[in-house]
Amino acid sequence: MIEQRAMAYVNMYGVLATLENLCELDNEAKEIIAGIKRPVALCFDVKGGPCCTFRFDKNGCKMKDGSDGCTCKMNFSSPEKFNNMINSGKPGIPAKGIISLLKFLTGPFTKLTDRLTVLLRPDEESLKNREFFEESTLLTMYTVAGAISALANSDSIAGISAESTVDGDIYVGIKDKAAVTIRVKNHRFRTVKSESKNPRAIMEFSDIDLAYGLFNGKVSTINEMCRGNIRLSGMLSMVDNVNRILDRVAVYLG
């Protein structure tokens, strides 16, 4: 069962947050933001849900909590309304900078989100291109990592695992490719898109092909652990709880 409020957090902190990484990794996205003449700070404010601002300029995209400093803003009367924008392109209510908001939404923002969709929901033919395959897998990792924290903090089932998770950093990474940190404090989770300097637990995949298989349910986590292709160390109860939350991520992003 999907909870609409939790889905809104997944869409904000999992899906849209990956725009940061898209603008860093993808050449097409870099071309799109290169055409931005002046910075745009776009806020999505969801009643009863998340509120975040995405700042776009020629250097990329940065996301932060809250609406401070936004140049344009769109309000959503409920989490369901926000989810409808993500799923069906139905906009919310413009609340600030209406002209620049509409111009940006129908231009660069739509182009970026369309490109993100292509990479996060690839067809089999596109995946035959190795460069595309690797980029798609890395972006999926960032989306999944953001969704883990989103669900730990908002989903009733994932919250059970969060309540039994001790404080500390959980390193999740693909060897020699990328790493993220799931930071836990007082049972609240936060995803940091960099490697922890002092992780309390580690879960590292041996290569990008394995990560792709795991993210898409094409290989068995248990089998790969037995083969030594997934490195686990530290406080394994933390990793176990993250894996339980990953089951919920699969429901929401499936």
Task: Describe the SSE topology.
Elements: H1 4-15, H2 19-25, H3 27-34, E1 40-46, E2 51-57, E3 60-65, E4 72-76, H4 79-88, E5 93-96, H5 98-120, H6 130-154, H7 158-163, E6 168-174, E7 178-185, E8 188-192, E9 201-205, H8 208-215, H9 221-226, E10 230-234, H10 236-253
Parallel strand pairs: 1-4, 6-9
Antiparallel strand pairs: 1-2, 2-3, 4-5, 6-7, 7-8, 9-10
Helix pairs in contact: 1-4, 1-6, 2-3, 3-5, 6-8, 6-10
Order of helices and strands: HHHEEEEHEHHHEEEEHHEH
- The quaternary state of the protein chains shown equals single chain
The major β-sheet equals:
5 strands, mixed
Mean pLDDT: 95
Shape: globular
Strand content: 15-25%
Helix segment tally: 10
Instruction: Report the helical percentage.
Output: 40-55%
Radius of gyration: 18 Å
Walk across the major sheet and give the strand order.
3-2-1-4-5
Question: Span between N and C termini?
Answer: 12 Å
Q: Ranges with pLDDT <50 over ≥5 residues?
A: none
Written overview of the protein:
The protein has helices spanning 4-15, 19-25, 27-34, 79-88, 98-120, 130-154, 158-163, 208-215, 221-226, 236-253; strands spanning 40-46, 51-57, 60-65, 72-76, 93-96, 168-174, 178-185, 188-192, 201-205, 230-234. The chain is of the alpha+beta class. The chain has a five-stranded mixed β-sheet with strand order 3-2-1-4-5. A hairpin with a 4-residue loop joins strand 1 (40-46) and strand 2 (51-57). The longest helix has 25 residues, at 130-154. The two termini are 12 Å apart.
